[in-house]
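Workshop exercise sheet. Pairs work together: one partner reads the sequence aloud, the other fills in the structure field after running the prediction. Swap roles for the next sheet.
Pair: D.N. / O.F.
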Amino acid sequence: MIEAAEAELSALLTLRSCRFEAPPYERKLERLERSGTVIPPKQLITVSRFSRHGMELPAAGVELPVLSRGQEVGRFVLEPTPEFGASLEQRVVAVALADQVGAALGTS
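Structure field:
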């Protein structure tokens, strides 16, 4: 299921790479929230960039949390392809894909 979600997220958001990580995480990344917005860790300030396709994800990557029964069980690390953006709708669909993975992990 995780590999299928990585492939779907890569195609949906035109990513350079996508991988699942279980905690603890090696580094903090900006976070793709349930609303489709991207927020930085508290110590960072970020500037959003837009292309003709939508908002560009941060070049350093962004985390997409995977929740199971309200608890974070992992994250997808999304590394964007330069100059490709993602619409709000695409980002919300990405959250829904992560939710499906979380639901599957909760039943296994």
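Discussion prompt: The helical segments are 2-13, 88-107. What would you look at next?
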